[in-house]
Every structure is written in C-alpha cells, then in structure tokens.
Amino acid sequence: MADSVKLCALTFDDGPDNIKTQRVLNVLQKHNVLATFFLVGSRVNEQTKAVINKMIRLGCEVANHSWDYERLNTVSAEVVSQKFTRTQEAIKKYAGVEAKFFRPPNLAVSQTMYEAIPLPFAEGVLGFDWAGCNTTAQDRAQKVLAGIDDGAIILLHDVQPDPHPTPEALDILIPELKKQGYQFVTLSELFKRKGVDPASRKGSMWKYVR
C-alpha cells in the first residue's frame, strides 16, 4: 500500500571524495536525513573506503554511476557492460553491498544501455550544481524547490570542482522541505514506501516515484 506521507530521495553523483563527500555527509548528519550516493567506480578504492563505510554506517544507500565520467550512449554494449560490471564489483568489494540503481554519466542514455544494464535507471530533479561559480547555494536550492513534488528523486553532486556550495545549499533545502512536510528516504526506501516496483519502467529513467 502506498505511503500517504510526502517523500523525497536526495541523491548525489560523482564521488566518493574524502573531503567533499565528507562535507555532504556532515550536513546530512546535522539534519538527520539519509541519501543515496551514485558512486563512480574508479573512485571506489582503499583511499576512499573510510568515507564509503561512513555512508553505510549512517544508513545511506550507494548506487552505480559507471566506472568514469565518459558518456555511454555512443559506445558498444561490451563497453557499457564492462564499465557497469567493474563498478558493481568495486562497490561490492569496498561497500559490502550490491548497488540496486544506475545513473548514466551526464544522463546520456541509449537503447543499448537499457539492454546491457540490468538495474533501474534514475535521473532526478536537478539542482544544476555542476555549473561551478555560476550558481550560488541559494540558486541550487531554489532549482530543486521549483521542481519538487511528492516522490521526487533529487539530483545533486557531492563532488564537483570548487567553488561547490552544494553542502550550503543543503542547509537551505533540507529545512525548507521539512517545513513543507517532506520526509527524506533512500532510493530503495522511496520505491518501497510508494509501493512501486523499480523494475517496472524498463527503457526509461525514474524522476518521480508515484
């Protein structure tokens, strides 16, 4: 049965990074909310193991954001499968869990990708926080608030070049959404509480779960 409470899922791309991801985790801890981190496989290693373990300890979820930042929509099924699988294996090794969701680099998709990758694809309400010094914390928070709705997946980045005020944007966004009656859940929990099978939309990406 679907949950009657307003829900949203914070998600973060392009990490992990020992300094920048930690800044995001600190804000999440302060506000007592969970998130889902889409990890880049080549960054998942012994050097970042501690921050990945902290995500898991806090109750956050980790997911697959391919091996590197290369778009996959113009490469072969073999390359897609290789990069996806290497990332799954790295996450399993260093996080101790199986990633259940995939987000394509640059949100670029193809039919080949949908056929080669066996996980549900997720996009999200964009904070446009890859725009560097062109956007402030307030800008980023307002972009998300403009697209928010019950069941929204929110797409932000824990890792981008400095200046990168997304942690500051969270200090604006999280209290405002709580004031509006939203609860923050992981991606898996969002589907569970909405009573929706994440595998039910093959060939497209989830932005809202309803």
What can you tell me about this protein's structure?
This protein has helices at 20-31, 49-58, 77-95, 111-116, 137-147, 166-179, 187-194; strands spanning 6-15, 36-39, 61-64, 121-122, 125-126, 152-157, 182-184, 205-206. Helix content is 38%, strand content 16%. The longest helix has 19 residues, at 77-95. The strands form 2 sheets. Strands 1, 2, 3, 5, 6 and 7 form a 6-stranded parallel beta sheet that branches. β1, α1 (20-31) and β2 (36-39) form a beta-alpha-beta unit. The protein contains 7 helices and 8 strands; from the N terminus they run βαβαβααββαβαβαβ. The chain has one domain: TIM Barrel (Alpha-Beta Barrel). It is globular. α1 packs parallel to α2 (49-58). The model has no long low-confidence stretch (mean pLDDT 96). It is an alpha/beta fold and 210 residues long. This is Polysaccharide deacetylase. GO terms for molecular function: hydrolase activity, acting on carbon-nitrogen (but not peptide) bonds. Pfam families: Polysacc_deac_1.
Uncertain segments are none
Number of strands: 8
Rg estimate, integer Å? 16 Å
Give the topology string: H per helix, E per strand: EHEHEHHEEHEHEHE
Structural class: alpha/beta
Features:
single chain; 210 residues; alpha/beta; TIM Barrel; six-stranded parallel β-sheet; two-stranded parallel ribbon; 7 helices
What's the quick description here?
This protein is of the alpha/beta class and 210 residues long.
